[in-house]
């Protein structure tokens, strides 16, 4: 088992440029100290410089990082593309073994909107449209109905507020500074 009955695990999944990182940052900013951001991009691309493929080393590192943070009393916001076929088994185990509430969200943004949002990112020049298209998977939901779909029309502040309320983070105190 991992975490406590009080720790919250929030999993944000979806295609590139769907708003996951912005929502994760918004949750942390709104909550204050005590929320660990476990970002797939950081652990996979920066820490390991690993490729996104089934069985890759980053899957275990993401799992270990989330578990450690939960075990020492942090709430965890885990975010990334996190393809269902690559990360689904790890996410299912983490969800099943977490003692506290777990909430999953899938950000469903049409490819055209993904392109528009991607154009505003610092990596836009490094990631061409054909590469972005090869990454795109429409409604790559985890099995079992464990995710709430967030559509492209959901504004950032409204999405953060919804997740804060759904997860119970809105009613919990932040850690002392």
Keywords:
177 residues, alpha/beta, Rossmann fold, 5-stranded parallel sheet, 5 strands, 44% helix, globular
Based on CA inertia axes, which overall geometry fits? globular
Biggest β-sheet description? 5 strands, parallel
Which runs of at least 5 residues are low in confidence (pLDDT < 50)?
none
Within the largest sheet, what's the order of strands?
2-3-1-4-5
For the secondary structure, the number of strands is 5
Please state roughly what percent of the residues sit in beta strands, choosing from under 5%, 5-15%, 15-25%, 25-35%, 35-45% or over 45%: 15-25%
Fraction of residues in helix: 40-55%
CATH topology: Rossmann fold
Instruction: Output mean pLDDT.
Output: 92
Summing up helix and strand content along with how strands pair, one would put the structural category as alpha/beta
What count of helical segments does DSSP give? 7
Radius of gyration: 16 Å
Question: What can you see in these coordinates?
Answer:
Helices cover about 45% and strands about 15% of the residues. It has a five-stranded parallel beta sheet with strand order 2-3-1-4-5, with helices on both faces. It has about 180 residues and is α/β, with parallel strands linked by helices. The chain has one domain: Rossmann fold, CATH 3.40.50.300. The protein has seven helices and five strands. The protein has helices at about 20-30, 40-50, 55-70, 85-95, 110-120, 130-135, 155-165, and strands at about 10-15, 35-40, 75-80, 100-110, 145-150.
